[in-house]
């Protein structure tokens, strides 16, 4: 897949937002206690005629960026709900916008969902009112980042893995471990790249969970102070070999094409973008330790003024044809299993492992760290604001 330049700009904005959004220090509401008691919508009624959304760039296109890319206008005609979209640049911004009470729903990433749930900003979802939910990949349902005690708080939209990418003209040993950017990073000193985000600490924690079992790390987002310190030390050592940290994904494209970076973390869409106009060839791999990744969820505001339109939107955006269009435009795996029948690029779902449950099981999806451990192991974990402080120390 080779994204168009127009699509690249939007994907850049969205992907950069995903990473930058993880740097929020606002963990209020993410205590791990029970969310405020509220009931989901019991029955679907007529649309209210309007819908106000907060979305990542590329998730709710209306043809204004590209006349050929429009899944909002057909929805408006079918539902009678006029859609107004506010682009969210970061997860932190999305959380604050949702708390304004002006929006009906949001396409939230895993570093925002728990904050919204525990603060009572979003409502539980009656999935029976969203027919297309039935054929969404099972491995995206009832997960720690989108549900509490078996109650879904949204409808999964799309997902992806943070992969290891390397220049095959420079890195000849076909690495299959994150060791190549951690313990073995000195081999590529000054040419290693990594995320510019506190959530990247989870990548180090995941690696340590496999290589230093004595630390007792079971979940990369549930770290005690000792475990967090161990991950921080690993990242401080890695920094000596870093060429640059990236959040703007075109910077990683440029770094690999110029040769200033030869190995590091990436998304599949970035790898697909590199090398068409020059001789640089890259390969990606999901390392043997597994990886971190994202799973985005459409969530309904607790006090939505237009809840029926929001439910209609969630069903529309996860319908097979539309979910396929969004996934291809954005550069991620669709949540809808039937979407693969409608992708323009016939091998798109194979490239993104869209329905590969075994592949998806190797991904530890972004989840907001909290003092109340998100894996349920206790109440002695480190909260995200601590991760933010540590990340600043790592980068210096």
What do you see in this structure?
There is one protein chain. By secondary structure, the protein is of the alpha/beta class. The chain folds into two domains: 5-160 and 294-360, D-Maltodextrin-Binding Protein, domain 2 (3-Layer(aba) Sandwich), CATH 3.40.190; 161-292 and 375-395, 3-Layer(aba) Sandwich (D-Maltodextrin-Binding Protein, domain 2). Helix content is 32%, strand content 17%. It has helices spanning 5-21, 72-79, 91-98, 110-118, 201-211, 225-239, 249-258, 268-273, 307-317, 320-330, 348-351, 357-360, 384-395; strands spanning 50-55, 82-87, 105-108, 122-123, 147-148, 151-152, 155-161, 163-167, 192-195, 242-246, 263-266, 282-285, 291-301, 333-334, 363-365. Strands 1, 2, 3, 4, 7, 13, 14 and 15 form an eight-stranded mixed β-sheet that branches. A hairpin with a 2-residue loop joins β5 and β6. α5 (201-211) crosses α6 and α6 runs parallel beside α13. The longest helix is centred in the first third of the chain and has 17 residues, at 5-21. The chain is globular and about 60 Å long.
Number of H- or I-type helical stretches: 13
**Rg over CA atoms:** 20 Å
The top-level CATH class of the largest domain is: Alpha Beta
CATH architecture of the largest domain: 3-Layer(aba) Sandwich
């Amino acid at each position: 897949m080779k994204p168009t330049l127009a699509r690249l700009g939007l994907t850049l904005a969205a992907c950069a937002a995903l990473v930058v959004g993880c740097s929020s220090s606002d963990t209020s509401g993410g205590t791990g206690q029970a969310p405020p008691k509220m009931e989901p919508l019991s029955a679907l009624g007529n649309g209210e005629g309007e819908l106000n959304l907060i979305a990542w760039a590329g998730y709710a296109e209306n043809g204004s960026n590209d006349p050929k890319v429009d899944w909002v206008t057909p929805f408006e005609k079918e539902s009678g709900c006029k859609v107004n979209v506010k682009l969210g640049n970061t997860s932190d911004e999305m959380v604050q916008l949702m708390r304004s009470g002006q929006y009906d729903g949001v396409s939230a990433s895993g570093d925002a969902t728990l904050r919204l749930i525990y603060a009572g900003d979003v409502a539980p979802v009656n999935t029976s009112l969203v027919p297309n939910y039935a054929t969404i990949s099972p491995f995206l349902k009832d997960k720690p980042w989108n549900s509490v005690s078996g109650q879904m708080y949204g409808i999964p939209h799309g997902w992806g893995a943070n992969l290891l990418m390397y220049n095959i003209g420079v890195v000849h040993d076909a690495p299959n471990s994150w060791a190549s950017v951690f313990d073995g990073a000195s081999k590529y000193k000054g040419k290693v790249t990594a995320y510019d985000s506190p959530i990247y600490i989870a990548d180090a924690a995941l690696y340590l969970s496999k290589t230093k079992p004595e630390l007792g790390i079971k979940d990369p987002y549930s770290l005690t102070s000792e475990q967090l310190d161990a991950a921080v030390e690993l990242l401080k050592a890695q920094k000596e070999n870093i060429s640059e940290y990236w959040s703007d994904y075109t910077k990683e494209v440029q770094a690999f094409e110029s040769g200033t970076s030869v190995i590091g973390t990436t998304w599949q869409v970035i790898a697909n973008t590199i090398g068409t106009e020059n001789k640089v060839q890259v390969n990606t791999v999901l390392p043997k330790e597994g990886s971190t990744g994202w799973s985005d969820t459409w969530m309904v505001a607790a006090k939505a003024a237009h809840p029926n339109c929001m439910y209609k939107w969630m069903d529309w955006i996860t319908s097979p044809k539309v979910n396929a269009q969004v996934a291809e435009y954005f550069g991620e795996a669709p949540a809808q299993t039937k979407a693969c029948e409608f992708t323009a690029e016939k091998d798109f779902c194979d490239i993104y492992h869209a329905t590969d449950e075994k592949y998806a099981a190797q991904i530890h999806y972004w989840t907001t760290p909290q003092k109340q451990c998100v894996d349920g192991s206790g109440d002695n974990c480190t909260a995200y604001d601590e991760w933010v402080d540590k990340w600043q120390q790592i980068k210096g």
